[in-house]
Design brief:
Shape: globular
Mean pLDDT: 89
Structural class: alpha/beta
Radius of gyration: 19 Å
Number of helices: 11
Helix content: 25-40%
Number of domains: 1
Low-confidence stretches: 1-21
Strand order of the largest sheet: 2-1-8-7-4-9-10-12-11
CATH topology: Rossmann fold
Number of strands: 12
CATH class: Alpha Beta
Distance between the termini: 34 Å
Length: 301
């Protein structure tokens, strides 16, 4: 059943991706359906491969061990994206997660932009099958308590494991949002725009009136540590990554796996895809997906 903002729509809807071949390929080309399709750089293919690969190995590996597997996408987008360099239209994160062979029991999406939200809901409406999906509108940082309540409740006889994908365009994900979810068993794959945003805006963020990094790290006094370490501007990205990892470890997460996304053929870093899990099994899954995706990546689609 599709729910928008936690409220059920008048008609019951079912959502099941098409039957996929045995070796799941997250790069799924589709036709332009006339709805909004955001443009992305060709390096997004790398992101889709890692996301889809982990969704696939996660559900296959955990099926039967947990009563409920939940997929959470807090920057869900429109469901489709267009590769800027070649015009190809592909399924993006939300619809990739619905296309995997072994499904999650529940899907929860949040999208802030009204046009993308509308397109996502219409695309979900066209998918055949039976799958529960809850769609929230607005800023996930503001709606996180409601979003968490929509996750299947954990009990002794009803175990729940969640995989959360976070794909913000810049450092607009609040640490409190992650912390709220992390009180349960949740694996995270998050985009960290440390080169695209932090590295380019250091001067602005050093201004005492700027709250952005404080919200991102969950520490309004982060500048004290920066000054204490006497680091250079070129160290800002590493500083933020290290500070974030330390905060995640306080929540019980193991050492992060950080995958650098770079401009093809130019070796220019854009952002990181960072994976966090509280269990070695999760890290092992992601390492396998990371190795496989890196070996298989081809930008010439």
């Amino acid at each position: 059943m599709l729910r928008v903002g936690g409220e059920a729509l008048p008609e019951e809807k079912s959502y099941m991706g098409k039957k996929m071949k045995k070796n799941f390929d997250p790069i799924i080309m589709v036709k332009d359906d006339g709805l909004i399709i955001p443009e992305v750089g060709i390096w997004s293919l790398e992101k889709y491969q890692l996301l889809g690969g982990y969704c696939d190995i996660f559900t296959k590996g955990m099926r039967g061990k947990w009563n409920n597997l939940v997929y959470l996408d807090l920057f869900a987008g429109a469901g489709y994206s267009k590769i800027r360099e070649n015009g190809n239209v592909l399924k993006s994160s939300a619809l990739i997660s619905l296309a995997i062979p072994t499904k999650f029991e529940k899907y929860i999406f949040c999208e802030k932009e009204p046009d993308s939200l509308d397109a996502l809901c219409k695309r979900l409406d066209k998918i055949e099958g039976d799958m529960e999906a809850v769609v929230f509108d607005g800023d996930c940082n503001l709606r996180i308590k409601e979003i968490k309540k929509s996750i299947t409740a954990y009990s002794k006889g009803n175990t729940v494991l969640t995989f959360c994908f976070l794909d913000p365009f810049h450092l607009n994900l609040h640490f409190e949002t992650v912390k709220t979810l992390a009180s349960d068993l949740v694996d995270f794959l998050m985009l960290q725009a440390l080169h695209m945003d932090a590295n380019r805006n250091l001067k602005n963020y050093m201004d005492e009136n700027s709250e952005k990094i404080g919200l991102y790290l969950g520490d309004k006094n982060w500048r004290n540590e920066w000054k204490k370490l006497k680091l250079l501007p070129k160290d800002f990205v590493k500083f933020l990554a290290d500070q974030y990892d330390a905060k995640m470890k306080e929540l019980g997460y193991l050492t992060a796996i950080r995958h650098a996304i770079k401009l093809p053929d130019k070796n220019v870093p854009l952002y990181y895809l960072t994976f966090y899990s509280k269990h070695e099994r999760g890290l092992d899954f992601f390492k396998k997906v990371n190795d496989y995706s890196t070996n298989q990546l081809v930008f010439g689609i």
